[in-house]
Amino acid sequence: MKMLGIFLVASVSLVLVNGLENGLARTPPMGWMHWERFRCIIDCDLYPDDCVSEQLFRKMADLLVSEGYLAAGYEYIIVDDCWMSKHRDKEGRLQSDPIRFPSGIKALADYVHSKGLKFGLYEDYGNYTCKGYPGILGHLETDAKTFAEWDVDYVKLDGCYSDYNKLEEGYAEFGRLLNKTGRPMVYSCSWPAYQEPLGIHVSKDTWSNVTNILRWFSKNQNRIAAYAGPGHWNDPDMLIIGNYALSYEQSKAQMAIWAILAAPLIMSNDLRNIEPKFKEILLNKDIIAINQDPLGIQGLLVKTVKNIDIWIKPILPFTEGSYSYAVAFISNRVDGYAYRISVPLKDVGLNHTKGYRVEVSIYSPFTAYRSVKVL
Ligand code: GLA
């Protein structure tokens, strides 16, 4: 199987829809989140190095900085599920697990901030989180205030143990309460994943999970793409590059498509132990620049030839009355040969009369052609 990311240049118009605006996330958020790699490992006796604990997050914060991830744009460190005590305190406030987070969440946020990073935290719009810790229902205002007091910069709000018919309204209400605190926080909402019949929230460290997400995104692109733009993004879930499941080529494909989709680039891997070739993908400046393009347009699947998908995203610079474009080729083939396809640019909507200057990313092994050719 061969997956490629190739990027070139060209014009188009777009429609953007504005969400609740707090000035954050002008480009897709980038960071690290523990879930895909560290799940709900809470037995620190058995797994002292991998349990969900303040040490783990401090270490990952250190590595985000020392290994060049922050410099590449990965700035949020996000604590997912299983950070809490099973019980609220006497005032009904959330509290962290006393054994695994003895210094408390505010101290962890302070540490993260001291490294020049931003801090994210998980909760759930339900009676419980997906792993059975206290959800926010019945405590919305208190929890929004608590997050602000703890200096949280990013809230991931999951949707387990909730009434799916109330999610739309409930998430909006919590968003208003977060805004009311006066602290700008990125608000990452999982509710669409719970309402969609396909249930793309089943996150797993597998290639088929990545392709299922891609299939869902392409199938629904006409409905959802317009909702992406500065301040509000569609989230196909975490980057699992550097973990157990994805090959090198599959890892390149995930990074290329997440860039084209203007998706949040939230890694979930073990930064202590990541092969250089995977790290190189995650730090690839060309691909990150496509993802972070200021226009913030979500790319689309425009054509499939011989089971090879062609995805296109309008980007800057804007010249001769035309945007430029990033183009990615993703092969869905599993029959083991590096097939050739030849696609005239006009067939994928690139029909500027002056033609295009083609820049091929170092991401792909190909040199530049006048038209696009893929092996
Ligand atoms: C759901 C979400 C995951 C993760 C877990 C935590 O499955 O999709 O991303 O947050 O809950 O329990």
Automatic annotation (TrEMBL):
On whether DNA damage is a keyword of this UniProt record, the answer is no
Per the record, what is one GO cellular component?
cytoplasm
**InterPro entries, from UniProt?**
Aldolase_TIM, GH, Glyco_hydro_27, Glyco_hydro_27/36_CS, Glyco_hydro_b
Sorted keywords for this record are: Disulfide bond, Glycosidase, Hydrolase, Signal
Q: Name one GO biological process term.
A: oligosaccharide metabolic process
Q: Name one GO molecular function term.
A: alpha-galactosidase activity
Cited PROSITE patterns: ALPHA_GALACTOSIDASE
Q: Pfam families of this UniProt entry?
A: Melibiase_2 (PF16499)
Top EC class, one word: hydrolase
Please state the Enzyme Commission number of this protein. Answer: 3.2.1.-
Q: Which N-terminal stretch is annotated as signal sequence?
A: 1-19
* Top-rank taxon, per record: Eukaryota
What family, per the record? Belongs to the glycosyl hydrolase 27 family.
Q: How does it assemble?
A: Homodimer.
The name under which this protein is listed is: Alpha-galactosidase
- Lineage of origin: Eukaryota, Metazoa, Ecdysozoa, Arthropoda, Hexapoda
